[in-house]
Amino acid sequence: MIEVDASTRTLSVDIGGSGVKVMILDTSGNPLSERFRVNTPQPPIPGSILNAISQLALSVGEFDRISVGFPGVVRNGVTETAVNLHPDWIGFDLAGELSKQLQKPVRVINDADMQGLGTIAGKGVELVITLGTGFGSALFIDGRLVPNLEMGHHRFRKGESYEQQLGRFTLEKIGEQKWNQRLGKAISSLQYLFNYDFLYIGGGEAKLVNIQLPANVKIVSNLNGLLGGIALWRM
Ligand code: BGC
After folding, report:
1. Helix count and strand count (H, E) for the chain
2. Which residues contact 152 (CB under 8 A, 6 or more apart)?
3. Using a 6 Å cutoff on CB, does residue 10 contact ligand 1?
4. Alpha carbon of 156 to ligand 1 centroid (Å)
5. Which atom of ligand 1 is nearest to the CA of 112?
6. CA-CA distance, 158 to 63, in Å (whole number)?
7. CATH class of the structural domain 120-219
8. What would the mean pLDDT of 198-214 be, rounded to a whole number?
9. Which of 40, 71, 106, 139 is the most interior residue, by most CB within 10 Å?
10. DSSP per-residue codes, 110-138
11. What's the rounded mean pLDDT across residues 140-150?
């Protein structure tokens, strides 16, 4: 255990299918450093991603604890799925290994859940989706997380999942216009299913959204993925 006070510095890490990003935050979630990013090492196996994080940690400065958003199901710091990374992550003790490597306490959560923690208002039913390499999703009820919602791999249309229809690979294949039309259909489908009060859209590709959005749907900064790293220690 570490003593947490106003000067506690958190290294927030976002592991993605195309980039690994880090930033240092204060206990209110204000950035204390720039955002540093490296391309996700290939093949994206645990050892090389841990090394990438350690390298980034060296350039970013001092910190007391670490928060990690991981693109798969995470339970008790152990990664259970990693569709866009590598099968070696299945059953990997990410929190334990990173803590051993950097000698600091570590908490790990699904990346969309972390994005959500940095985004939500904490009232009613709030759904978060992230558009990047994969399709992330997070659900909150009055600020409480329903962990590891894997909407991305759920059937959406034409026999394909949300991720197959809207992931980066498909975006590059079908182009922005068609992708935006599909996104509109996905928003209708999610509203119909969840009857959410708010839907937030984040992730690296959210900047490409150009359709008219309903009043209860908002584009949010991808930076929230890192800012959620503070709320993770209050759970
Ligand atoms: C994973 C999710 C993740 C999303 C965004 C999906 O492929 O299954 O856990 O949140 O990608 O990275």
Report:
1. 7, 15
2. 134, 135, 136, 137, 161, 162, 163, 167
3. no
4. 15
5. 10
6. 47
7. alpha beta
8. 97
9. 71
10. EHHHHHHHTT--SSSEEEEEEESSSEEEE
11. 97
User: Which pLDDT belongs to residue 3?
Assistant: 79
Domain ranges of the chain: 10-111+225-233, 120-219
CA distance 108 to 127: 20
Q: What tokens were used for 124?
A: 């009613």
The tens digit of pLDDT for each residue in 32-89 reads 999 999 999 999 999 999 999 999 999 999 999 999 999 999 999 999 999 999 999 9
Smallest CA separation from ligand 1 atom 4, residue: 136
- 218, containing H or E segment: strand 217-219
Taking the C-alpha atoms of residue 198 and residue 196, their distance in angstroms, rounded to an integer, is 5
CB of 205 shorter than 6 A to ligand 1: no
pTM to 2 decimal places: 0.97
Regarding the domain delimited by 10-111+225-233, which CATH topology (the fold level of the hierarchy) does it fall under?
Nucleotidyltransferase; domain 5 (3.30.420)
